[in-house]
Structure formats: C-alpha cells, structure tokens
Backbone:
C-alpha cells in the first residue's frame, strides 16, 4: 500500500503574517530544527524588511535568501522561540491513523503527532534495551516544557525488567519517574 502524505514547510507551519519579525535574530521569532546528519540545530529567524514584508532567514546566511521553504520531515518537531510574550493559536487536522516515525541512528527531534498528552509506553517507541545508556534507546525531554526557566533536558533510557517488559528509566535526578509526552510536544529520541 502506498500513501501520499502532505509535507509542511516552515512558512506553512509558522505563517510570517502571524509572527513577530525584527531586524536581527535577537528581536525576532525563531524556529529551530535539528539536523540529524550534522547533529546540530539549524535556526531560522523572521526578518521584517523595510518594505513591510516578513521573511524566514537561516541564521548566518548573509545572502538573505528566503528559508521558509525548508521542508520539515514527517514526524519531526521544531523548537519555537517567541521574541515577545504572547499567545499563539495553532489549528490543524487530527490524524485518524497511527503516526509512523522513521528512526535513523543517532539523535533526532521528533514530534508526538497527537493532540493529547500520553505516557511514552503508550506510543510504542523503543526496542533496544541494554545495560548502559550508550547502547540503549534514550529519550531527552526539554525540561522547559514542564517548568519555566529550565535550561536542561531530562534523560531516560529503555530497560527490560525481569518479566521482559520494556519501560523507560529516569537517569536525570530532577526528571519525573515516567516520561510524559506533551500534546503536540517534541523530544529527542536517541537510537544507538
């Protein structure tokens, strides 16, 4: 069975007309995507041109080329930093079929694909459980989604208990016992 699914660009997901642009990245809304191949974030910021037009630019690109056409991979997540405090409302469609993530080796920033919170075990992620963090599937959850002013990640690793069941074990002292996936949230999934 072959199914065609629409892909989103940065401009589709975050329309410039609804956001705050500025003359430099520090005064503009920003969106960060994670480049799994290079193992680094790529930041785009919203330039508000003198003509009134707003354009997504890739940070560090002196050519000022429109970067809003960047395609977000299905199942991926982004981090959004608002330049100013305000409420944003996003609307969309709720899927009626399961979400399938293609997981590569290494770290990737993935989205839940669901509009409700849920326990990680309910999402069916993880299959490699080992004795060490380096050889197990791992989760890194941005603590800032759960408490203000946080600047750290909570880390979990997949373990297999005596009965053979897979569970997520908190490795960070401040992390909640069971990882919770926030509605429309994103986490780092690390596949050894």
Residues:
């Amino acid at each position: 069975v072959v199914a065609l699914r629409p892909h989103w660009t940065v401009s589709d997901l975050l329309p410039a007309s609804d956001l705050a642009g500025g003359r430099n990245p520090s005064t503009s809304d920003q969106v960060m995507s994670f480049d799994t191949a290079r193992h680094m974030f790529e930041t785009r910021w919203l330039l508000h041109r003198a003509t009134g037009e707003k354009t997504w630019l890739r940070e560090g690109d002196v050519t000022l080329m429109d970067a809003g056409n960047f395609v977000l991979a299905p199942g991926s997540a982004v981090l959004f930093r608002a330049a100013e405090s305000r409420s944003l409302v996003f609307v969309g469609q709720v899927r009626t079929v399961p979400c399938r993530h293609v997981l590569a080796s290494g770290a990737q920033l993935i989205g839940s694909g669901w509009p409700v919170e849920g326990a990680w075990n309910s999402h069916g992620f993880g299959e490699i459980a080992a004795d060490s963090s380096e050889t197990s599937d791992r989760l890194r959850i941005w603590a800032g989604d759960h408490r203000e002013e946080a600047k750290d990640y909570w880390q979990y690793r997949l373990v297999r208990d005596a009965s053979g069941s897979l569970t997520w074990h908190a490795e960070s002292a401040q992390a909640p016992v069971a990882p919770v996936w926030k509605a429309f949230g994103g986490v780092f999934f690390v596949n050894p």
